[in-house]
Design a protein that fits this description.
The chain folds into 2 domains: about 150 residues, Rossmann fold (3-Layer(aba) Sandwich), CATH 3.40.50.720; about 160 residues, Alpha-Beta Complex (L-2-Hydroxyisocaproate Dehydrogenase, Chain A, domain 2), CATH 3.90.110.10. It has a 6-stranded parallel β-sheet, with helices on both faces. Strands 7-10-11 form a 3-stranded antiparallel β-sheet, covered by helices on one side. It has a 3-stranded antiparallel β-sheet with strand order 12-13-14. It is globular, with a radius of gyration of 20 Å. By secondary structure, the protein is of the alpha/beta class. The longest helix has 25 residues. Helices cover about 40% and strands about 20% of the residues. The structure holds nicotinamide-adenine-dinucleotide and (2S)-2-hydroxybutanedioic acid. Nicotinamide-adenine-dinucleotide (NAD) binds next to α1.
Amino acid sequence: MTDPFTSSAAPGRNESEAPVKVTVTGAAGNIAYSLLWRIASGDVFGADRPVDLRLLETPGRVRAAEGVAMELADSALPLVAKVTVTEDQREGFDGTNAAFLVGAKPRGKGESRADMLEANGRIFVEQGRAINDGAAQDIRVLVVGNPANTNAYIASKAAPDVEPERFNALMRLDHNRALSLLAEKLGVSTPHIDGLVVWGNHADTQFPDIEFLRVAGQEVAGDVDRKWYEDEFIPRVAKRGSEIIDVRGSSSAASAASAAVDHMRDWVRGSGARWVTVAQPSKGEYGVDEGLVFGFPTVGVNGRWTIVEGLDLNDFQRERIQANIAALKEEAGVADSLLR
Ligand code: NAD
Ligand code: LMR
């Protein structure tokens, strides 16, 4: 056995594996302040996999990102092989294997996420192009900045040489919010719940669907109080982002980082047979227009997502899925004008 006090090998770090190159945009922001430490602690790529972190910021905030890098150094985390702080998109995405596109303006009280498209959409044109030109072949992109689904659509369209399926948007936060409320209602812990999906857009139209819910392998949808489900659960999950802004005074940060960790971890290392919600470009599944970045029930196996297909949908479900298709088509119209 290696003695950690006398060996030159760092304890907990597999020196034979090349570091994963990970880009985090918005590195001086609130979400990144939690996300970077989770990545650097091995929660995403594995407890012994070294990471080469690229912290991308705007010129006005790059100094603050340097402060974040100083704190990462002060944490003496064994998996951190290298940290680069940059305002240069090309440097930020050069050879990168995984990109968390967080950098974007958050909405304030009374604003919708779609209102942020004008302010944030262009960021993803530029970053999509830089990813197209410089990222590694196995790049995985998770867009967190809002409106996340349409920003992922923009980044993918701006990167024509990268497979669209390599661009996802974060809806795992909505999924986790729904899981947590269900666990409380049903009196079970979250790992016992499966068969949950949040269809559609990370917006108020989103549809947290319990029709296929299983607890410890048993179907339970019929046991859930329908009035609670329709009048309380669905709107509570869909409006949780605004509720956090109202109560906390700023938008969710640690829970968003935690969901981003869950999403990228399951993408890279698998979700097993367990359903997770992944917003990904549609290939026409469930009648969703091709290319729209839509939340689907998904499992992660061998580094790829597979949408759970062939589910029998009732009118209640179809109506809500349609509302999300309509909203995303409208946002895509604005996005297409930014891409011209
Ligand atoms: P924040 O304002 O604290 O930080 C954002 C950072 O991004 C700032 O430091 C800013 O300088 C930087 N930035 C802006 N443009 C950039 C660019 N082109 N390149 C690199 N960096 C850039 O915001 P936050 O709380 O970290 O939230 C970031 C985004 O994530 C917001 O749009 C927010 O609405 C969104 N969000 C999404 C989810 C989700 O579930 N999808 C959850 C929470 C927050
Ligand atoms: C959230 O869902 O918490 C984020 O998208 C932030 C927001 O604007 O609601």
